[in-house]
Amino acid sequence: MSNSGAKVFFGSFAGDQQHQYMCILMRYLLHGEIKFIILSQSVDNRRQLHLYIGAMCKGGSCSYRVNKGSPAGSTRKIRSTASQGRMASDTARDLIILARARMQLKPPARPKLYSGLMPQEDLDPYRDLIPGLPEDLAKICLALVPRAHFPAMGAVSKRWMSFLESKELVAVRKEVGKLEEWVYVLVPDAGAKGSHWEILECSGQKQSPLPRMPGLTKAGFGVVVIGGKLFVIAGYAADHGKDCASDEVYQYDSCLNRWTVLAKMNVARCDFACAEVNGVIYVAGGFGPNGESLSSVEVYDPEQNKWTLIEGLRRPRWGCFGCSFEGKLYVMGGRSSFTIGNSRSVDVYNPNSHAWGQVKNGCVMVTAHAVLGKRLFCIEWKNQRSLAIFNPADDSWQKVPVPLTGSSSTRFSLVVHEDKLLLFPLEEEPGYQTLMYDPAAPMGSEWCTSKLKPTGSCLCSVTIKA
Fold it and tell me: 454 CB contacts (<8 Å, ≥6 apart)?
């Protein structure tokens, strides 16, 4: 090292220490207190640390060495002065990621005031996410941590907890390419009448149960995912031997692994349609508290934790489901009090005009559905061996046969995972393998099997990216 006056960090870190020491190193780099970093080859997140170092070296230079078991370990140098504007290509790619997140690479200047004259909030050691780092950079540091560690991180400080439970966390993780996609399934309890949610890890070899959901065990409820949060809405439960429609709403935060009770709905209901449209939740139709069919519609704003009634359906509708395309709410399937048998009409709500429209060409008695890309995939009650695919661009339908595995009467729950469609059986069958459909695969090879499999029959399934 030619710079004899430069300070050097030499060592390694792993496990729970990684992220803490990364932040410390970045702080030293920001203030120019070190110029050389020598790390062991065993560092797990060396590329991420290289990203941090590359960002901090803007306007100066530094190098770090990766030991490979001999004194002659390879040294990588980063030189990026303002006049040259050059750096290693991989560092440049890392800086592009950081630039997209609108990072400030230099700490904001603070006036040097006598501490007795400074506002109390400036003296608060928990005011900054990471003391000494710009806010944008600190948020990226936290967002780069694997999602499984977030519940423990939430106990560090109120500021960390506030960021980890905000929708900004998911936005930052998306910017830096760190979103993790997990599948959640609702399965029956062993030897009991209840049920519980569990996480299916991507390897398919392990299932992790979630904390118990509040309230009574319900059926006929709705589920919606917004950002990293799962909303379980209404339904009916047996209370003292009588089925009662519920107005309760629960939220599961997948980053903090905890449930929260939200504001109650204006109208208790079950067997209704629900979907997320433009960041808010719509519910429509269903059965009311006294078993009456409903045409009422209400919308939930997560920012305000408030339900608001809006213009209702043209006719009462139940057993239906909802989805969204191009900023509009689609309500289809189920039954209507104005039809004999099942309803084929599709009610379409435009939030911009606050008006309902209608499409005649719908499907009936859908037992499972999922939106993949710009198309809707359904399985109808009368035909469990065929996927009905709806294209909202031209309101057209097409059929795709489902390969026969197990009993021909097997019913499925659909969930999207990594741009593919998974079919989980609603009834547990020995030897059953999860079917997976890839609409982008070459003709004839769209179907295969997946390792992902619930511990029992699948009552409901969702995918959460966070």
Answer: 185, 187, 198, 200, 207, 424, 461
Which has more pLDDT, 109 or 402? 402
Tell me the domains of the chain and their CATH numbers: 1-100 (no CATH), 181-465 (2.120.10.80)
pLDDT at 355: 96
Q: Hey, which residues does 396 pair with through a beta bridge?
A: 391
* 86 CA to centre of own chain: 37
Separation between Cα atoms, residue 284 and residue 137, nearest integer Å: 42
Supply angle C-alpha 451, 454, 457, rounded to 5: 130
Q: What is the CA radius of gyration of the chain?
A: 27
Which amino acid is present at 172?
A: V
Q: 179 is written with which tokens?
A: 């979103």
Neighbour order of strands in the sheet with 8-11: 8-11, 36-40, 61-67, 74-79
Residue with tokens 């409901």: 460
* Mean pLDDT of the region 196-224: 85
Query: How far apart are alpha carbons 274 and 324 in whole angstroms?
Result: 9
Hey, what amino acid is at 263?
Answer: A
CA distances from 74 to 31, 39, 65, 218, 219 (A): 26, 11, 6, 60, 61
Asked if residues 50 and 168 have their Cβ atoms less than 8 Å apart, the reply is no
The pTM of this model reads 0.74
